[in-house]
Amino acid sequence: MTGAVQDRENRILRCARLSVAASLAVGISGIILLVGGLVFLAAGHQQDSAAARPLDHALHRGDPGDARSGLWLFVQSGEDWDAPSGAPAGFPLRDSMRAVAIDGGPLEETVSVNGTVYRVRTDRFGTEVRQAVLDEHRQRQDRRRWVAVLTGGGLATLLVAVTASVRVARRAIDPVAKLLDLRRRFVADASHELRAPLTRLHTRGQLMLRSADDLPEPIAAELRRMVAGTRELGEVLDDVLRGARLRSHVPERERVDLAHVAAELLAAEAGRLAERGLVAVLRMEAGQYPVLGVRPALRRVLSALVDNAIGHTPARGRITIRIAAVDDGRTVELSVGDTGVGFDPARHPGLFDRFVRGADGQRRGYGIGLALTREVVESHGGTITAAGRPGRGARFTVRLPAAPPSRPRPAEQRSAAGAAAGDR
Predict the structure, then answer these.
(1) pTM for the complete prediction?
(2) In the chain, where are the structural domains located?
(3) Residue 395 has pLDDT above 90, yes or no
């Protein structure tokens, strides 16, 4: 099982590294794309402004300047046309000039002819209609170079970002891997160090129990309880250590009769109850109250609640365990009430949180019993609540889904069928 647990932990760590690295890479890539897009838009806007200025100057001055600049100016005055030498084919745009001559408004167009793109601006100045034509071949070449440079730089930066993200993810997850390794060692060491003395104690108890016929009955009864207690402690130890292994192994659930568990627990706690001068009673209707769960874990729930009641109930107090079927038999409700010091709900909103301890009572624990109880109950699909008042005792109520009716075994079905045939 240890190898399977380690494999699962390694898979979780790999997934965590990939997740962190992917998140960082996606974030950096998004920033790179955003910055690149803003740079491209800003450069394009600046280029558009730079291209608009020579068009305006040519129209207002009536002079296109150097012919090598890729700028031409056409002028219409009445029926006369003035076209510069070397003008590209397809210009001027006579229809545009006529339209401007009629309505007087400026007109700007983009025209694709001769394998290139021209920006054309037409405007009227007095009796003249002027049309400036600018070849945008150079501007578009510049834009393509910008795109290539930005793409190449973005890919290079992305490669660096991915490499850095992988390193950062490894450095971020490595401490977790070390902690998991330390926990594996602790689980293995604790399993060995605790299991060995517990096994020896249980074995000695069994050896003593073999000669129990020569002992007085009260001592023999206590000895049997001690052997049963060490066996239960071993089951609890297995359950706790199993739960410390990342929940990789989920124990098979079985039908557990809470009434039987409660009766066993009260018998095991009889000596401590008598020593504390407490009375404990079990109240329920006749019948069984089965739930699907892990028996040691459910026993630990009831044991923690009873232990909490014993620790907070003074001498001559009373502890009551009630078990009932509710919700038309769909739920089994178990409650542990006491006549102890109680608690103020306003002062203990986190009663089931770890390391929260009551201010009263005779025992001083570490404040994890109720927290573990809640975890076990919730893992079984149930709920746990608490109610109490200062000086009026407390009551903890556990509600668990009832086990479905057990189906008869094939042998039982055949016996039932044979009995029915015999009746006929």
Answers:
(1) 0.49
(2) 251-401
(3) yes
